[in-house]
Amino acid sequence: AQSVTQPDIHITVSEGASLELRCNYSYGATPYLFWYVQSPGQGLQLLLKYFSGDTLVQGIKGFEAEFKRSQSSFNLRKPSVHWSDAAEYFCAVGPSGNTGKLIFGQGTTLQVKP
Amino acid sequence: DAGVIQSPRHEVTEMGQEVTLRCKPISGHNSLFWYRQTMMRGLELLIYFNNNVPIDDSGMPEDRFSAKMPNASFSTLKIQPSEPRDSAVYFCASRSGLNEQFFGPGTRLTVL
Description:
The structure holds two protein chains of two kinds.
Chain A: E1 3-5, E2 10-14, E3 19-21, E4 24-26, E5 32-38, E6 44-50, E7 56-58, E8 64-68, E9 73-78, E10 87-94, E11 103-104, E12 108-113
Chain B: E1 5-7, E2 10-13, E3 19-24, E4 31-38, E5 42-50, E6 53-56, E7 65-71, E8 74-79, E9 88-95, E10 102-103, E11 107-111
Parallel strand pairs in B: 2-11
Antiparallel strand pairs in B: 1-3, 3-8, 4-5, 4-9, 5-6, 7-8, 9-10, 9-11
């Protein structure tokens, strides 16, 4: 079955520290992979996406993610976290065919300490 | 570009009442998605349309829920009758081709 697992429900980091949010997926074909961020009371905003090509993808707000097929992972990283990065982060995987369904992980809530 | 527009942003109603949520997708997008978000179940896809045609409604919880897309610029999600367990944030998202989905700000529904 297709699924996305975000092992960490809640993470707290200090401002200026590095960040890595984990995402593992189970998918039978070549996946399309996404990271979205949701600030309180807001909708989801796309941070970055991987469709093909270079396995290290750059996104907005200084985020990057690396696709590792052998580990079925698509972890999100940021070298230096800012207080404004506090939000909920969702990893999602989509089919490679021409359909629109995305499977979302349960989300990771990031808290940033001053 | 105004992005995906949803209305109302907040809705409080009493059990048994009909609720209609509205969505205007981004112009030119040919796919539209309705999601529900709750603490217990996270983000759930309810239904999605491609070129105004419902493609997959397997996520619609029961017959009390219905969705329509009469044209490329408008969609509704209706709950009749509403129940307290329908309280959630409902998101609409749209997409062009194989690109990413763009989400609206959501409608927070409270059923008393």
